[in-house]
Design a protein that fits this description.
The complex is a heterodimer of chains A (200) and B (199). Chain A is 60% helix and 2% strand. By secondary structure, chain A is mainly α. The chains are: A mainly alpha (200), B mainly alpha (199).
């Protein structure tokens, strides 16, 4: 029961991106197309889940003075694994993601979940929490990328959707500022539905 | 060099073009005073860590830097973040020892900076630009300074706008982060007019 609540909570009601405003740094630049957004979301899910698991296993023997540096080393190692994997098997996507894969290290969601959850909970719970928060992040990324790719280039995953009806892509959607405005609108819709999140 | 500076402040602004440091940008931009403090701290750390990481990249990480056939570039993430975290820790200790009043002003921001994406992003972009725009330690200092000032400019402007917006009727669901994102988007559009400037 508690486990399933841990899993569903970060997906909607307590989404890390649109409610806690974490991890936006690297989130928006990869949302021009759906494919890199999806890959980025899954990479963060992987890093978040395993850093939570590892730090939860280490939590009893770790002096709290050095925990930040240990966290950074664990996260950086996992990110290097992801980066090398993407370069080996998905070279085109890894070119599009460029430095943003490296920036998973400083993604506040990963550090935030380790600090707030993994250091005080059992390994399996922490792993589930990491997966759920990563998926909550991936969901927002894919949502933003869906609108930007559909309205910007008229395609989804590179497959033509709107262009065959004579739609001309709105290239403004491909510029960085529109990602911010779309995420602002998502927050607007989400907070209109969840009135208790609204600021007084 | 001037071109690199203008480019990193206005055209390739950390916040508006690459979304770096958005977390603290949204969270700390509620008053101009704190925004000024955090911006100064970020610029300082950026000016110091980008050249440090440049030297590290040039003499240790780059292919064939340590010896013929040794390529350690896959270690760059872990070494860059270690340099940044260690440097921030060092600055915190030095400032605390020699200038307690400055420490009280900046103290709360310093630990935040270690995980600020703008710092890490600055170093990673610097690594990509080696050989094209950045060819010496001087260039890397200019790039660090420019990108830091660009971030500083963005957060101070944002804080000034958010102080004013307190008095206007924003829809309840848009208050706080929602309207902050939309304003940032509009500011980003305004900054797009700088693209293409060459000096």
């Amino acid at each position: 029961m508690k486990l399933s609540k841990n899993f569903t909570n970060p997906l909607a009601a307590n989404n890390p991106v649109i409610v806690q405003i974490l991890g936006i740094c690297s989130a928006l630049a990869v949302t021009v197309k759906l494919e890199p957004a999806l890959v980025m979301g899954l990479s963060v899910t992987f890093v978040c889940a395993f850093s939570n698991l590892i730090m939860s296993l280490l939590r009893k023997g770790l002096p709290s003075r050095i925990r930040i540096i240990v966290q950074l080393v664990v996260i950086a190692t996992l990110v290097i694994v992801v980066d090398q994997f993407l370069r080996a098997y998905m070279y085109e996507v890894s070119k599009q993601l460029s430095v943003y894969v490296g920036l998973i290290i400083t993604n506040c969601i990963v550090m935030g979940r380790v600090e707030a959850f993994a250091l005080g909970n059992k390994p399996w719970d922490s792993f589930v929490d990491g997966v759920a928060n990563g998926l909550g992040y991936a969901f927002i990324l894919v949502l933003v990328a869906f609108f930007r790719e559909l309205l910007g280039s008229g395609t989804l995953f590179g497959i033509d959707i709107l262009n065959r009806f004579g739609y001309v892509g709105n290239s403004l959607m491909l510029f960085p500022p529109m990602a911010l405005i779309i995420i602002g609108c998502i927050i607007w819709v989400h907070r209109s539905l969840n009135k208790d999140l609204q600021e007084k | 060099m001037l071109n690199l500076f203008i480019n990193s402040v206005f055209i390739e602004n950390m916040v508006f073009a690459y979304f770096f440091g958005m977390c603290s940008y949204i969270a700390v931009s509620k008053s101009v005073k704190t925004a000024l403090g955090l911006g100064a701290a970020v610029t300082f750390v950026q000016v110091m860590t980008v050249p440090l990481n440049y030297l590290l990249n040039e003499y240790v990480l780059a292919p064939n830097a340590l010896g013929e056939g040794i390529d350690l570039s896959f270690l760059s993430f872990i070494l860059f973040i270690a340099v940044i975290a260690a440097f921030v820790q060092l600055v915190e200790m030095v400032v605390e020892k020699f200038s307690p009043s400055l420490y009280n002003q900046l103290g709360i921001f310093l630990p935040l900076i270690a995980v600020n994406c703008a710092i890490m992003g600055g170093s990673l972009f610097m690594q990509q630009m080696v050989g094209t725009e950045i060819n010496s330690v001087g260039d890397s200092i200019v790039y660090g300074l420019g990108s830091g000032i660009g971030w500083w400019l963005a957060i101070v402007m944002m804080a000034a706008i958010r102080e004013k917006i307190e008095y206007s009727h924003v829809p309840a669901a848009m208050k706080g982060p929602g309207i902050a994102f939309i304003i940032t988007g509009l500011m980003g559009m305004a900054f797009m007019i700088f693209s293409g400037i060459q000096l």
